[in-house]
């Protein structure tokens, strides 16, 4: 009796009737994303080529880096087609880290200001 219960499953697998269906994305999507990655990398290179300095330089480099990372995560890691809960599980921790790092930077500037104010030797 046990062999009869499993017989249809084995025959279906043996004939290839059971197969996993996967997502198929057009090659054009990957070529467009590759093109955008090339453009953003070129823009990142041009920041150094034109000799930009200071906050503008680092802001542009970080902007291009985040845009490239977003494209890679969305398309090549298939996050654009994933469930929202999975996207939150992957995207929220880096956002939380950025928020906490920003808070630490503000706190460090305040601490530095207080140390200079109270521990500086009068001249």
Features:
transmembrane helix, mainly alpha, Cyt_c_oxidase_su4_prok, elongated, cell membrane, 123 residues, 78% helix, Cytochrome C oxidase subunit IV, transmembrane, 4 helices
Q: What does this protein structure show overall?
A:
It is a single chain. This protein is mainly α and 123 residues long. It is elongated, with a radius of gyration of 26 Å. The chain contains four helices and no strands. The N and C termini lie far apart (98 Å). The longest helix is centred in the last third of the chain and has 36 residues, at 84-119.
Strand content: under 5%
User: What is the total tally of β strands?
Assistant: 0
The succession of helices and strands, N to C, reads: HHHH
Number of domains: 1
Instruction: State the end-to-end CA separation.
Output: 98 Å
Helix content: over 70%
Computed over alpha carbons, the radius of gyration is 26 Å
Low-pLDDT stretches: 11-19
Q: Biggest sheet, in brief?
A: none
Shape: elongated
**What class would the helix/strand composition place it in?**
mainly alpha
Give the rounded overall mean pLDDT: 82
The count of helical stretches stands at 4
Quick description:
This protein is mainly α. The chain has four helices and no strands.
Architecture blueprint of SSEs:
Blueprint: H1 2-15, H2 27-49, H3 54-76, H4 84-119
């Amino acid at each position: 009796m046990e062999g009869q219960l499993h017989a249809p499953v084995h025959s279906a697998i043996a004939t290839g009737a059971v197969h996993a269906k996967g997502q198929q994305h057009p090659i054009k999507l990957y070529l467009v994303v590759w093109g955008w990655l090339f453009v953003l990398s070129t823009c990142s290179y041009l920041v150094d080529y034109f000799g930009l300095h200071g906050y503008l330089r680092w802001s542009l480099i970080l902007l291009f880096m985040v845009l490239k990372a977003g494209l890679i995560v969305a398309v090549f890691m298939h996050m654009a087609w994933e469930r929202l809960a999975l996207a939150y599980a992957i995207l929220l921790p880096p956002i939380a880290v950025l928020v906490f790092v920003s808070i630490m930077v503000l706190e460090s500037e305040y601490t530095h200001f207080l140390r200079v104010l109270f521990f500086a030797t009068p001249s």
